[in-house]
Amino acid sequence: MRLFISIDLPQKELNYLKNIQNQLCIGKFFEGRLTKKEQLHITIKFIDQIEEKNISAIQNLLELISFEPFKICLGNLEVIVKDKQVRLIWITVLSKQLALLVQQIENILEPFVAIESRSYTGHITLARVTAVKDRQQLITHLNAIDIDSNICFITNEFNLKQSVLFQEGSEYHIIETFPLMVKKEE
Predict the structure, then answer these.
(1) What would the pLDDT profile of 104-140 be if each residue is shown by its tens digit?
(2) Alpha-carbon distance 167 to 113, whole Å?
(3) DSSP assignment of 126-168
(4) Which ranges constitute the DSSP H helices of 26-126?
(5) pTM, whole model, 2 decimals?
(6) H or E element that contains 23
(7) Cβ atoms within 10 A of the Cβ of 26, count?
């Protein structure tokens, strides 16, 4: 089973990001697929393939996470390049607490998932790119899109999700939601 851990976005922020996606499409500087509004999220940890027998152990470990709700703000639009080709357009998210939560989750899941060697960049994938007509025009267009840095929200939970791959894209299913709160000592 293909799993990941994420933070879902409130409706107001989803609507704002859908508007940004609409602006991305003006000028048709790239070909690809926009992330569906209901699938926009912040990935905390991509777990990948896990045997079903291990899912309950992962859930039990995630229940041990002790973390208070925290604020996340939208950052900048960025392109992600792989093999000299633009592959993703995403918006960064800003939160010192998010990086600390990621670290706590990585540490607790280490028996099942390797800790990332690269530093964590919180983001929301807006589009998967298959072709770019003119890379410089695309970047100029992205830089012209005004991102409101006052768009922030408080997150009070994270989700363990299953990702099911289809030819037309992925489908996500929540396995369990974990509230953010400081666990009381027993």
Answers:
(1) 999 999 988 888 888 899 999 999 999 998 899 999 9
(2) 27
(3) EEEEEEES-HHHHHHHHHHSPP-TT-EEEE-EEEEEEEEEETT
(4) 55-62, 96-108
(5) 0.91
(6) helix 11-25
(7) 10
